[in-house]
Amino acid sequence: MLYELWILAISSLVAATCGIVGTFLVLRRIAMVADAISHTVLLGIVGAFLVSQTLEGPLMLIGAAVVGLATTYFIQVLDNAGVPADAAIGVVFTSLFSVGVILVSLYARDVHLDVDHVLMGDISFAPFHTIEWNGIPMGPQAFWVILAVFIIDLALILLLYKEFKITSFDPALAAALGIPVTLIHYLLMTMVSITAVASFDAVGAILVVALLIVPPATAYLLTEKLSRMIIVSALTGVAAAVTGYYTAKYFNVSIAGCIASAAGALFLIAFLFSPSQGILLRGRQRKKAAAPASS
Amino acid sequence: MQEWLQFLSSPNLQWVMAGAALLGLASGVVGSFVLLRKESLVGDAMAHAALPGICLGFLVFGRETLALMGGAALTGLLAVYAIRAVHSQSKIKQDAAIGIVLSVFFGFGIVLLTMITNGSYSQSSGIDEFIFGQAASLVGADVQILIASALVLLILSFLFFKELKLLIFDPLFAGGIGLPIRFLNALLSSMVVLVVITGIQTVGVILMAALLITPAVTARYWTDRLGVMAVLSGLIGGLSGAVGALLSSTISGLPTGPVIVVTATAFFLISFLFAPQRGILFRMMETRKNTQFVLNNFLLDTMYEKLEKRYAAGQYSALFSRRELEEQTRLPRNGLEKTIQALQKQGLLTQTDGKYVLTGTGLAYAYDSSLLRRIQDIHLTHEAELGSWKEASANGDLRKPRDYLMNERIHSLLTAEQKLPVSLAIKQSSIEYADQA
């Protein structure tokens, strides 16, 4: 029972964190940069492992942040040099990811760093990996890591809410007002990177993308206000995590995969039935609007 | 040497190399269409979306190559249409649509995958190899499939080259002249799906995108023609495949797919840095050349205008001290030094007694350049009357600014002082000789 609670707590926290950060990715139309970062984080993890020879500690987060920023920077460089934006993303993430896979298979084959684990996560083992503080059992390490990242992300967004908002909707205005647009961009990318690496224990680096993009996109269809979108996005993520977990438990399949699928199902519902945007109700509204005119 | 020959002639390596090269060739050609269509990441989504299809194929029909590939093709195409639907039917943008479809399909694929590996299916081992690919296990039969699919793709690209080209560059026009746009879109998507489903066994779903994108971007650096680009991209892809397969088999433990991708990326980096016209180095040199050109003209103009002022005030010295140049131009010290050296090299500027003076050619050049700038000013203020400046300069009317003075309107708009200098030039040259004497 406690085991189940921990899993639910961890996956809900991951989903909420991703939902909050992802909102800005969707609004800035850089969702695929998150995809790129979630792949290249592997290289950061391997790099940190090669330096420290362990899979623990803050070095993982630092490695992930460095590689995440490098990914963003390389994409920017190629973009400025005239490579189409989506191709720039494709070139950068596939090459850095490949280097990561090669390093794993050359130097880290014997440790608990198999690529499958990094990609798909293994949340069912997370509750067993506990830590102690002064001899008191504190629960799973993954929980505390993701909680720390959640607090960091939330604090940064609350602190710089206005800046994030203006740079997302009107970067030109933001620049004119003297807000450091580039700095905010890289700050956001750092947040995405550390969120991705903190989450990979739970859902795996690749399925982080699902939680970073799908719940915010769902919220995007349901509301027109940024603050509401962030909350709806986080709640949608948590709902996906909870339903995903129970579905996975029922069918005895991958938890991470089920969470992603559940997020997809919630998106589909919003896509079809959103009061203002859903393709079904929108059509009815149009008919309603057209009816008096034609009569 | 003997060892190498023996190594190269091992049938297993030959199969792997041939397979990887063919795959690279086909994906390079198709990738160049996709790149210019700005749908590179759609290919990535398709590759990820193939995973649930493979699992479904396995669940329904068992481990038949055809079933797995059919399933992959089905969900791959479904993903393309899902992306289009989300993008066109809601306010969600293309990139988010791709991200949604990619991650949800892949997540569902993982669900099915665990269902298979946890369940009691026979021959289920090896299904998860599709995530990373197993190039090293390519055998004759796989290569036959690769040959067939590469041939189909090359023939299709060749047959529909003109139509695809039009679809890429001007879809509205293509529709206007009656080309079947829907069919062509479906054709291109099917070609990508075919590449993806034959490629995932070799490099896996995650890195499949690299084979579609990287060779095409690389080829783009060397040419502006679609046909050349497609061929080049195919060659680069094929070469990356062969070299990657070779490298990964020489060092044990190196996974083939990632090595192929890294090889392709190396080709890209070389092109990115060194390609003529588009490469970074070339463009840096070009910028430097342009900057120097602008600085040269700036110094000449400044000296010329100063001469004009002196002339108007009745001073006839053509000499400039170093200090005067610094004050007049306000250029940083070494920038000025470089510019002076460049002008001296071109024979437009000389030095006498530590002072600088324009040569005869230099003066004529400076006159032309100043006059051109003045004409441009006039032209831009009276653009409505005189026509666009861009057109005038494109026509080559401005090669010889002095001829342009013959244009009556321009002639009347410039003040006497502004166009005066020819006489000054003559006088100047005599002063110059006087100074030197």
From TrEMBL, chain A:
**Entry's Gene Ontology cellular component terms:** ATP-binding cassette (ABC) transporter complex
Source species, domain of life: Bacteria
Membrane topology, from the record:
Multi-pass membrane protein
Q: Which residues form a coiled coil?
A: none
Answer whether the UniProt record assigns the keyword Transmembrane to this protein.
Answer: yes
Q: State the compartments where it is located.
A: Cell membrane
Name of this protein: Manganese/zinc/iron transport system permease protein
From TrEMBL, chain B:
Which GO cellular component terms, listed alphabetically, does the Swiss-Prot or TrEMBL entry include?
Answer: ATP-binding cassette (ABC) transporter complex
Name the domain of life: Bacteria
Pfam families this protein is in?
A: ABC-3
Keyword Transmembrane appears in the UniProt entry? yes
Which Gene3D superfamilies does this one have? ABC transporter involved in vitamin B12 uptake, BtuC
- Localization per Swiss-Prot or TrEMBL: Cell membrane
The membrane topology of this protein is: Multi-pass membrane protein
- The UniProt transmembrane annotation reads 15-36, 41-60, 66-84, 96-116, 136-159, 166-185, 191-214, 226-247, 253-275
Which GO terms are recorded in the biological process aspect for this UniProt protein? cellular response to iron ion; response to zinc ion; transmembrane transport
**Which keywords does the record carry?**
Cell membrane, Membrane, Transmembrane, Transmembrane helix, Transport
The protein's role, per its UniProt record:
This protein is probably a component of a manganese permease, a binding protein-dependent, ATP-driven transport system.
Q: Which family does it belong to?
A: Belongs to the ABC-3 integral membrane protein family.
Name-wise, this protein is Manganese transport system membrane protein MntC
Q: Which organism is it from?
A: Sinobaca qinghaiensis
